[in-house]
């Protein structure tokens, strides 16, 4: 019989992730997925002050996330970027790379 606990505590350091710096970590997630008029602008405003806006937008485009505001881009804006031939680099409000 093992003396080790069945589920050891997670004490290993994990790699840094851009999500750790997300400005929306302290924001109600509903703001980013709301259909209420005016909320999209408020979500985009949070993104505009986010230090990882580029990483977030690039990730959302690469993952083809269909809903919500990510990287300062609305779902419609991401759809348009894809329609224009997005090939893996961020565009729009994130600045051309
Ligand atoms: S860019 Fe916007 S959605 Fe993405 S992590 Fe930052 S605040 Fe959150």
SS element count, helices: 3
Low-confidence stretches: 90-97
For the biggest sheet, the summary is:
none
What is the approximate shape? globular
Radius of gyration: 17 Å
Termini separation comes to: 57 Å
Number of strands: 0
Secondary-structure element order, as H and E? HHH
What compounds are bound to the protein?
iron/sulfur cluster
- The average pLDDT is 87
Q: In percent, how much strand structure appears in the residues?
A: under 5%
Quaternary form: single chain
Query: Based on helices, strands and strand pairing, what is the structural class?
Result: mainly alpha
Helix content: 25-40%
Sum this structure up briefly.
The chain has 97 residues and is an all-alpha fold. The chain has a domain at 51-90. It has helices at 39-48, 53-63, 75-83.
Task: Please provide a written account of the structure.
- It is a single chain.
- It contains 3 helices and no strands.
- It has a domain at 51-90.
- The longest helix is centred in the middle third of the chain and has 11 residues, at 53-63.
- It has helices at 39-48, 53-63, 75-83.
- By secondary structure, the protein is mainly α.
- Bound molecules: iron/sulfur cluster.
- Residues 22-24, 32, 46-47, 50, 52-53, 56, 70-72 line the site of iron/sulfur cluster.
């Amino acid at each position: 019989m093992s003396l080790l606990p069945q589920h050891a505590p997670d004490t290993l350091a994990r790699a840094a992730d851009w999500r750790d710096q997300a400005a929306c970590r302290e924001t109600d997630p509903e703001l980013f997925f709301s259909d209420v008029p005016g909320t999209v602008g408020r979500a985009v405003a949070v993104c505009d002050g986010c230090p990882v806006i580029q990483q977030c937008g690039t990730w959302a485009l690469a993952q083809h996330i269909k809903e919500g505001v990510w990287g300062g881009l609305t779902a419609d804006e991401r759809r348009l970027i894809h329609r224009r031939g997005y090939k893996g680099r961020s565009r729009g409000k994130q600045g051309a790379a």
